[in-house]
Write a sequence for this structure.
């Protein structure tokens, strides 16, 4: 293909990037604003970052969010890898197709419907418990329901990222390991898992970031006890956002940016090395 | 030798998806068709039919805004994906990274940030006033940007544009260079190559991009609240039934069912479209 180095394409790309970064730049700018306003810049200050360091609520919410994302990522990766291994071995076409369609459901469904349906499940279960078992459960919505919901919407991403790797592995390898005396489970850990590890790792990262950032499904499944960062900010935007939320988001922005640059540099270096070896 | 099929491997996942994917969706249907006491009832659908002016307007607005946002995303994303796919390897990787960063930022705070840009005396109007001052001596009257339908569409385009760029770019970057070279050898100029080779072959990317922008746009509830000045879309009405003051699970479930039906119909249309294109290419 011809290399398009036209000035037009560069200007266009720059404009789109400006559009995508405009609100992020606004956020960073107003995190340094000495006034209370999130519209008029009055002067430079680090006040809101100090305020953030003193904001115990925000810190607790941040810890909650990380804990939830980590737990959801770990469980969904374990369950999803197991499921992918299972689906990969299903021989009947219709059964495989059915399993894959169910896996795709949460991806196709509008997020709000997923959230609402999960909320109904927990409300319904609570009513059942109270009516038939004479319990007095006030609500089932909390960390548990959030975790279940997050695992559920992370699972398809895990399965769809591990499954292609499994298809590429040679089934003979695991068979050979078993012939040499490994149990099926040991053969999985010694032979199959190492060959799908890149898929499993990227699945973990994906699940972690999706959970970290989820707002819509969490909004319906969180209850009032356990809050995550997106919900905390949402509750705040109903009134007035304090600029220390801008500081927090700016810190997240810088962290993501640094991580991506790092991975980019590492990848470029690895490619260079690979090219040299050739 | 085939991999051994062991049913117990699938058991945990089958159980999980039955409990947390299928049962909740079944419950949506159950709640939609029952009343408070749990008896079969069509009251929610009757209510929607009685207030059809409100609901038709809401559904119409949601569809119209989502369609506008999808078309704008497609128009913006296609050239960008094309430029990206033709850039140097290093530039491609850098651009991919730059496009993914905003996707990972919290969607609530990004949408809220747009308020500062669009406000009456916000950043955009300040810039416009300055430009206006350069060419004219009349007083500048700031146009209302925030709390308009345009602002809602802008919020949708902003939040979901990367989901249009990435699939189209992925398909385009995998195109065989020999295909375009062959077209050029046969005398096609750049536009003809684009029209006859690149566009038809990137249809699968376009289809998945369109779905990934349309579905969240048509069901959004936050963007319309923050940028539309309390204008209601389907998502807002549904949220109102579950978490807001209305608190009517049955009506909320009925609205969710209708939303799912709309999305399903749109997806079927899209699928038809992409299958047709693909087979057209094979023939």
């Amino acid at each position: 293909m011809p290399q398009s180095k036209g000035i037009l394409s560069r200007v266009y790309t720059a404009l789109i990037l400006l559009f995508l970064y405009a609100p992020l730049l606004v956020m960073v700018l107003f995190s340094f604003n000495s006034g209370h306003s999130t519209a008029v810049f009055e002067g430079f200050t680090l006040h809101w970052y100090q305020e953030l360091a003193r904001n115990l609520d925000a810190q607790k919410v941040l810890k909650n969010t990380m804990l939830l994302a980590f737990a959801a990522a770990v469980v969904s990766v374990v369950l999803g890898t197991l499921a992918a291994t299972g689906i990969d071995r299903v021989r009947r076409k219709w059964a495989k197709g059915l399993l894959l369609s169910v896996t795709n459901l949460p991806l196709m469904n509008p997020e709000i419907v997923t959230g609402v349906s999960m909320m109904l499940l927990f409300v319904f279960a609570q009513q059942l418990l109270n009516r038939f078992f004479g319990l007095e459960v006030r609500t089932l919505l909390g960390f548990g329901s959030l975790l279940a919901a997050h695992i559920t919407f992370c699972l398809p991403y895990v399965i769809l990222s591990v499954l292609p790797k499994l298809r590429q592995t040679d089934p003979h390898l695991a068979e050979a390991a078993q012939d040499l005396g490994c149990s099926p489970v040991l053969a999985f850990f010694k032979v199959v898992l190492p060959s799908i590890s890149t898929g499993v790792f990227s699945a973990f990262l994906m699940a972690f970031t999706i959970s970290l950032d989820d707002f819509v499904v969490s909004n319906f499944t969180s209850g009032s006890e356990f809050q995550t960062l997106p919900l905390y900010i949402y509750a705040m935007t109903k009134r007035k956002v304090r600029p220390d939320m801008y500081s927090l988001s700016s810190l997240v922005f810088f962290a993501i940016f640094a991580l991506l640059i790092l991975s980019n540099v590492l990848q470029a270096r690895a490619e260079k090395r690979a090219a040299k070896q050739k | 030798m085939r991999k051994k099929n062991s049913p117990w491997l699938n058991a945990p996942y089958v159980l999980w998806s039955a409990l947390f994917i299928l049962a909740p969706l079944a419950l949506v249907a159950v709640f939609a068709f029952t009343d408070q006491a749990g008896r079969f009832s069509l009251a929610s659908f009757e209510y929607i039919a009685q207030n059809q002016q409100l609901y038709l307007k809401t559904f119409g607005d949601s569809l119209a805004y989502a369609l506008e946002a999808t078309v704008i995303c497609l128009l913006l994303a296609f050239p960008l994906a094309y430029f990206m796919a033709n850039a140097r390897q290093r530039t491609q990787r850098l651009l991919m990274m730059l496009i993914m960063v905003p996707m990972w930022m919290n969607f609530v705070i990004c949408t809220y940030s747009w308020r500062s840009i669009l406000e009456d005396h916000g950043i955009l109007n300040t810039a416009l006033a300055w430009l206006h001052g350069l060419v004219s001596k009349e007083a500048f009257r700031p146009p209302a940007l925030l709390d308009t339908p345009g602002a809602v569409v802008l919020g949708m385009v902003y939040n979901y544009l990367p989901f249009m760029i990435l699939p189209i770019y992925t398909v385009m970057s995998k195109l065989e260079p020999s295909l375009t070279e062959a077209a050029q050898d046969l005398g096609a100029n750049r536009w003809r190559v684009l029209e006859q080779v690149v566009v038809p072959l990137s249809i699968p990317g376009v289809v998945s991009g369109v779905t990934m922008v349309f579905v969240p746009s048509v069901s959004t509830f936050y963007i319309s609240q923050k940028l539309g000045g309390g204008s209601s879309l389907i998502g807002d009405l549904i949220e109102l039934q579950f978490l807001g003051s209305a608190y009517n699970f049955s009506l909320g479930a009925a609205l969710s069912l209708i939303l799912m039906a709309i999305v399903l119909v749109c997806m079927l249309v899209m699928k038809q479209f992409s299958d047709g294109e693909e087979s057209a290419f094979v023939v």
Observations:
- The two ends of chain B are 36 Å apart (CA to CA).
